[in-house]
Design a protein that fits this description.
- The chain has 277 residues and is α/β, with parallel strands linked by helices.
- The chain folds into two domains: 201 residues, Rossmann fold (3-Layer(aba) Sandwich); 67 residues, no CATH class.
- The protein contains nine helices and twelve strands.
- A six-stranded mixed beta sheet has the order 5-6-7-3-8-9, sandwiched between helices. Strands 2-1-4 form a three-stranded antiparallel beta sheet, with no helix packed on it.
- The longest helix is centred in the middle third of the chain and has 15 residues.
- It starts with a strand and ends with a helix.
Length: 277
């Protein structure tokens, strides 16, 4: 479990990216952290892994402080940054060098994941394209079988078939003892993958809810005309009229559109908090 208590962080004292952020993340969920570019999504992940330290507040991962970066902590976490780096090594050499740091590493699954992601062994990793390098790191991270997996913009650099394989693979490896935390601004890439949504904007937590709860409390519809009596949280022109997000006043639930949800939340933070609280 990850506990974030009154976290404040900023590269400059007068401009904080986060202000008294409190958040609890449990195992058994795939979280989607949504935010605009520059909102501090990558910064939050780096605080969770202990590469950056809070100005105030604290972070605990299974009771351990990330800033101490103890061996027990590091072997239970894996962080994939947006810009991956691979050394000038072959796949077997990389495995021999880095796998011993992760006691639960599964070699058979590693090569199986490489096959599923269509990563071919063609010599040194540095000769692979950026997309292939990223898929290699994803395969290695999943084979480490850590309890917590942090992914920063994991679909950047992947083509459409690779994005589909990535989603299928993440779904297949997930279990109740793991927590997967995905940060992205490419919201559509998380459709049908995450089960909890976290939205941050201007240093504040605006939403932390399950997809099921969102579908119950908000309605995502396409209408030919917008009624003046409806309190529309977000609207967008579509081929069939208007795609809208409103409070759900019926017993029916609708399919959550993450892109429209994000816009509705960031446009109406006060109303969203009232609906979900």
């Amino acid at each position: 479990m990850v506990e974030i208590v009154n976290l404040s962080f900023g590269y400059r004292k007068k401009k904080l990216l986060y202000k008294n952020l409190s958040l609890t993340l449990d195992t058994g969920s795939i979280y989607g952290l949504l935010g605009k570019n520059g909102a501090g999504k990558s910064t939050l992940l780096k605080n969770l892994i202990g590469l950056l330290f809070p100005n105030t507040g604290k972070i605990l991962v299974d009771g351990q402080e990330p800033r101490k970066r103890s061996p027990a902590f590091l072997e239970s976490m894996y962080f994939i940054p947006e810009e991956v780096y691979v050394p000038s090594l072959t796949i077997p050499s990389y495995k021999r060098l880095f796998a011993p740091f992760y006691p639960r590493f599964d070699e058979k699954k590693f090569y199986d994941y490489l096959d599923q992601l269509d990563v071919r062994d063609e010599g040194k990793l540095t000769t692979l394209s950026f997309g292939q390098q990223k898929k290699f790191i994803i395969a290695f991270a999943l084979a480490c079988r850590t309890r917590v997996l942090l992914l920063d913009e994991p679909t950047n650099g992947l083509d459409i078939p690779s994005k589909i394989r990535f989603r299928k693979l993440i779904s297949s490896v997930f279990d109740e003892d793991r927590m997967i935390f995905i940060s992205t601004h490419q919201i559509r890439d998380l459709d049908n993958l995450i089960d909890r949504v976290i939205i941050v904007d201007q240093g504040e937590l605006l939403l932390n809810a399950s997809v099921a709860d969102i579908a119950e409390k908000l309605a995502f519809r396409t209408v030919s005309e917008i009624s003046t009596q409806e309190d529309v949280l977000y609207q967008e022109d579509s081929l069939r009229g208007y795609s809208i997000v409103t409070k759900n006043d019926t017993a029916n639930s609708s399919k959550v559109n993450l892109e429209h949800l994000f816009n509705a939340v960031t446009d109406n933070p006060a109303k969203i908090k009232t609906i979900f609280n």
